[in-house]
Amino acid sequence: MPHYQAVKGARDIFPEEMARWKYVEGVIHSIAALYGFSEIRTPIFEYTELFQRGIGSTTDIVGKEMFSFQPDPQGRSITLRPEMTAGVMRAALQKNILSSAPVHKLYYISELFRKERPQAGRQRQFSQFGAELLGVSSSAAVAEVITLMMQLFESLGVHSLCLRINSLGDTEDRLRYRSALQSYFAPYHDQLDDSSKERLEKNPLRILDSKNPAMQELVAGAPRLYDYLSASAVAEFEKVLFYLSERSISYQIDYRLVRGLDYYSHAAFEVTSPALGAQDAIGGGGRYDGLARELGNASDLPAAGFAVGMERLLMTMEKQGLFTTLNPQGPLVCVVTQQQELEDHAMQIAWRLRKAGISTETDLASRSMKAQMREANRMRAAYALFVGAEELSTGLYSLKNLLTSEQTTLSLDAVIEILREPLLREQVRS
Ligand code: HAM
Description:
Layout: H1 15-34, E1 38-39, E2 45-47, H2 48-55, H3 60-64, E3 68-69, E4 78-80, H4 85-95, E5 104-113, E6 125-134, H5 139-156, E7 162-167, H6 171-185, H7 194-202, H8 213-220, H9 231-246, E8 252-253, E9 265-272, E10 281-287, H10 291-294, E11 303-309, H11 310-319, E12 333-337, H12 343-355, E13 360-362, H13 369-378, E14 383-387, H14 389-394, E15 396-401, E16 407-411, H15 412-420, H16 422-429
Parallel strand pairs: 1-5, 7-8, 12-13, 12-14
Antiparallel strand pairs: 2-4, 3-4, 5-6, 6-11, 7-9, 9-10, 10-11, 14-15, 15-16
Bound molecules: histidyl-adenosine monophosphate (HAM).
């Protein structure tokens, strides 16, 4: 077996695809700025307890999907982060950032790791764009993060998405519902699979998120959490729906939606894309006021956020034909040598152009002029600058616009002046 195989579930992104990522990331940065979110980066690994406590030990993510290891025999177990929310909250609490300003709006585009069975749209290393609004406990905050997420999809031209939303109520609501679920599932105990049996004791809500079709059939008849919500939880949820309607964001209420992480309370949501296959969730999130306390903070800390799977977002855009107009950018100019002995001079000119801030390519492989021109076209260069014996003696160079074939003879300083013109560069590249 060759030794140059990527790990299953991890993939390379080559420059052509990278242009798409850069474009999407650019839109993300601008939209995050519109809503006043600032970027945060946290470590790729964290102590394992952070995820066990934060995401919940009975979730699939913590139970089956974490890449954990012990750095040294006595050391604490550490885990490659399977999601960002717990790490962002950990960072906020550790630095006590809410003492300086009561509200923090943070976003990230980060790599994550989950030991899931790889398939289309499901990788072991993947990335998410996510936003976390810390310090505000309100329906307005949830509506704000949903609005940001939907504006991103809209700005990218992504369409036909389905936003499903549910309320998971507060801790007391869920405790009441937990007993109701245990009573409902008790007579079916023998039909439950092993993990559902375990969950029935520890966290029956998790059974609702089971991927096993036999469990899903049982779940279909289970009581609804919504019917156990207090009047104030219902009112809060209705407020979120009101904001969404006001902003023309369509949604479906999905009373069975529980999400795969335990930290949610009140509104939780998921967005699916029909352009994706079996793994059709493109993003999800909700309110998670209790996470801070779970991590050892003295009290709850109001928070809401979401994350969008970058690979699934790009797959959706590809399927919806949204990349057709996006071409990878080539260099602005290729320095082409007419004679091989002038190669060193061509390299010197390329260096001067680059120092002047002009993206430049030149041949490093002593190819013929014809081959160099073919390469310039393949790279989608806008201009070719010819270097021959005559150019060398006169100090005047021929600059050819490769789009119009127009050719002019200029000094190198004049070439630099023209190619540095920002307006011209915009025109050439669009
Ligand atoms: P999540 O639903 O686990 O939520 O993940 C969010 C998105 O990440 C999914 O909708 C999907 O698009 C993408 N995703 C998840 N697993 C994979 C995978 N194995 N391969 C490719 N893409 C994947 C969270 O992670 C929460 N932290 C979201 C959140 C932020 N809640 C509040 N704030």
